[in-house]
Amino acid sequence: MSSSAPTRGLLFVTMQPKETLSDELFHDWYNNEHGPNRTRLPFIPNGFRYRATDLGGTINGTQVKPEYLAIYDISDMQQLMEEPYQYLRAPPGKTQREIDVMAQIWIDRMLFDFLGEKINEKTFVKLESPEHFEDNVKGNGLTTCRFQLDAGQVSQVESWIKESVIPVAETVPGWRRISWFKNSYLEPRKDGKVEIVVVFEFAPSTEPKSLAIYDSPPVEVSDSKSRTYELFYTFGGAARHLAIVAPWTHPDGVTKTIPHVSPAGSAVESTVTTRDGAVLPFRLEGNAADNSPVVVLVNSVLVTWNIWDNFIKHFFSKPENHKYRIIRFLSRGRTFQSGTTSPVTVDLLASDIIQLLDSLRIPQAAALVGVSLGGATTLATALTYPSRIQSFVSCDTSAKSPAGNKDAWGQRIAVAEKEGKTLRLASAFGDESSSADAQPVVGEELAEMTVRRWFVPESYNDPSIAPEIEKVKQMVSTNSLAEFSRGVEALFDYDYTDLLPNYKGKGAFLVGAGDGVLPKGMEKLSKELGSAEGRSAELEVVDAAGHLPMVEKPADVAAFDILGDFGKYEQPSSVIMDSTRT
């Protein structure tokens, strides 16, 4: 068959870990490595893990009756025979860890081609879709039945499904979909038999009628297996499982897991790809629970997420903050963004934050904190996506682009172009490699000009801060020049002032006392936010700090009540309740 006429199908895998494999390592490997490596591929739009409910009490599964089922929808089955999927099935794409873990699992992997389905238009939902987070919380029930029969009997069984099985299924309150498949043309059985699988999905609050609906097929079958399951874990667009057992880095360098990060939790570093193809590297760290509240930190231009390092240390030094997860990411304008030439605007940067939350299956951020362009992005995200942001802190920014911004930034770009510095950037993370092509970067001259403008003079004489300033200078000098030139366009023309008065959410502002005219401008902002209802927002002015107060005064910024009265976290009803059993 040709991919020009794609065959829809199903990757259907039952798994039973052996006694030698711990639950913790099993879930770490599957949730961070095996599953996300597949759902990253465009022809695998989703992936779900189910756990059997027919094992009786606390009895574990067996090789004959496994405890776990994984199902992936496939939009084009032929792609399973091509790169990049085949890369995942053998070294180096199949890592040594994966080889070692899979040797400790009884696995039954089947490929099925789609035959038909019946959907309940009133109840069916795409559980992987962000708009159905709440439905995903409530879960999904599933029954499966597999038949082995002669090839000439398929049409009879299909008629039986349509005429006998579906009418009974439709009497079940909360039924969502019934679909049926046959073993794929990609992997025909050696014995010439055909295997049919019937998959029946229903809302978890309802009990399906007895599996006896599958007991009377119109033909004699050589084998029949019926099982019941409940939804256990839904994959997103990237690894997010923080109950990490051991450090691991994928050979392609895209994903890294880091256990036992001091002072709280573990960390995952990976990437999310936006709808227009931009690659956004991110770092998720902190509490291991998938439903723990999340704080998102948003950078200024020309820097990496490391500007928040000391802030995070102070934040997690408070035991009451150990319940949180933190997301940092490299926004457009830092390193090369494969596959996109989209004009960069603050609106687009705000949508990137929402796509980041979607990919990590986070229905609502407990707090969004951003500085400079990141502060404008934070403000825009809170104003335009209020249901996704519980509270925000916008730092050292404005709600409207200042006059002359385009000319000012144009002059800075010209400084970098004149210096002509290049680096061999090898990845979206900004890694260097001698084998990569040389790319223009911002360079030393503009970096020096920038940090002199960003930090107050006293900081250069403070031995505890001067090294941090040097780190920031290095971040600026190594920024991709092409991406800086494109990304900084977001600062040329934006205006969110009209949205400020009617904002009903929780928000605050923070600014370095030495950041030029911004303290006065942000005081005005704080009075305008929510003013239509007679409210104002809190403003924190950080003494002895300039444009990046989280670098100069990280303890003071961490002490600000970003999650206090105005930002008290209230778990949204649609929080994802994916969990792993230990």
TrEMBL record:
Classification via SUPFAM superfamilies: alpha/beta-Hydrolases (SSF53474)
Transmembrane segments: none
Pfam families registered for this protein in UniProt: Abhydrolase_1 (PF00561)
Domain AB hydrolase-1 residues, every copy: 293-554
UniProt xrefs under Gene3D superfamilies: alpha/beta hydrolase (3.40.50.1820)
Similarity-based family: Belongs to the AB hydrolase superfamily.
Protein name stated in the entry: AB hydrolase-1 domain-containing protein
Species, as recorded: Exophiala sideris
